[in-house]
Amino acid sequence: MFKTPSIRSARLIKLMVNHASRRHITGRGGTPINTIIVFVPQQEAWVVERFGKYARILEPGINFLAPIVHKVAYVQSLKELAIDVPQQAAITMDNVTLNLDGVLYLRVTDPHKASYGVEDAEFAITQLAQTTMRSEIGKIALDTVFRERETLNVNIVEALNKAAEAWGITCLRYEIRDMKLPKKIQEAMQMQVEAERKKRAYILESEGQREADINVAEGQKKAKILNSEAFKLEQINNAEGEANAILAKAKAKADAINVVAQAITSKNGVNAVSYNVAEQYVSAFSNLAQKGNTVLLPANTGDVSSMVSQAMAIYTNLSEANKVKQTLSETEEVKEKQQIEPTNINVNPESWDTDTHTLFSSELDSPDKQN
Questions:
Q1: For 242, phi and psi rounded to 5 degrees?
Q2: How many CB atoms neighbour CB 78 within 10 A?
Q3: Can you tell me the distance from the alpha carbon of 273 to that of 271, in angstroms, rounded to the nearest whole number?
Q4: Is there a smaller number of Cβ atoms within 10 Å at the N or the C end of the chain?
Q5: 95 DSSP 8-state letter
Q6: Strand 53-58 vs strand 44-50: parallel, antiparallel, or unpaired?
């Protein structure tokens, strides 16, 4: 039958549980002491050995170990760890020495490999990070170190993961924390940056000046085009106005001539014309020698009646010539209407013009007409 444990045994078990529920007690090597009942914290892995040989890994929570037989050999943290990578010197491809330090983020994925694969995982991964960073820095030039910083971090992480796979450790990321350059290199880079900024400022200023000149030229071009179009319209309007004025003057003159012609054909019309000519002659004679010293005068300047008679004779001859030409034009129209050959009519226009000229000359040369 099952025996009920004594009071002494119950007290002993209670004392062991209370003792184990507290933070584990570490021995000389920093590992917990086997208290038979152990409590493993979350995100930790305890590696247990049996008689010095790997036995198992304790899971978080309550675990039971046999005294003397079992021993907690290693305690691995499964949390993400941040390890400082000490400052070191690295030479770039163009022989510039850089002093860099960084931060490495890693996590233990296999407690068994992390315990038995390497003696000191933190020291090993730190040294590997330094050598890998020096190797990667030597592949690039100084000017590209700052631009390819992200690429440099990724390459270091890939190289670390390849080597740390056998140690049960995964490198999550690597960040270059600080980068120091020699003083002369810093001064040269500062001068280069200033020169680049001045160059950009000059380029922007020249581009702005060019845009301003282009805008001014385009404005002047448009202004000239608008001025030329306005001048063109002005000339067109002036030409149209002058043309309309000329037409109006011509029409008014034609109307005046028609009125004068009608007045001449009326009773006493010739006497009125003679009076007008005499009046204009006297007015013109009064204006002689007012604008110049040299004046050419006919022999009979004071004979007003003779001058009026000559003017009227010229008018009469021109009227008769116009009548002859009008008669010829009417004859031509009649011939065209009746479709008569020009040889059937014994009319010579040249003879008419010659006779008219002869008649006009005889009238001027006749002493009677002059009187």
A1: -65, -40
A2: 15
A3: 5
A4: N
A5: S
A6: antiparallel
Sheet with 81-91, edge to edge strand ranges: 81-91, 97-108, 169-180
| Residue matched to tokens 């702005």 | 208
Rounded CA separation 141/95 (Å): 8
Alpha-carbon distance 311 to 276, whole Å?
A: 11
Predicted pLDDT at 307: 64
Q: Rounded to whole angstroms, what are the CA distances from 317 to 321, 324, 369? A: 6, 11, 12
* Rounded Cα gap, residues 356 and 327, in angstroms: 13
In single-letter form, the type of residue at position 115 comes to S
Q: What angle do CA 29, 33, 38 make, to 5 degrees?
A: 135
Q: pTM of the prediction?
A: 0.46
Distances (CA, A) of 275 to 29, 268, 279, 284: 156, 11, 6, 14
Query: Quick one: tokens of 125?
Result: 């991964």
pLDDT, tens digit, 9 for 90 and up, residues 213-232: 999 999 999 999 999 999 99
Answer positive or negative: Cα dihedral of 85, 88, 94, 96. Answer: positive
Cα separation, 289 vs 273, whole angstroms: 27
Q: Once rounded to an integer, what is the mean pLDDT over residues 29-45? A: 82
Q: Which residues pair with 58 in a beta bridge?
A: 46
Other Cβ atoms less than 10 A from the Cβ of 282: the count is: 11
As a whole number of angstroms, the distance between CA 321 and CA 329 comes to: 12
For residue 130, give the nearest of 64, 84, 80, 62 by alpha carbon: 84
According to DSSP, the residues that pair with 159 across neighbouring strands are: none
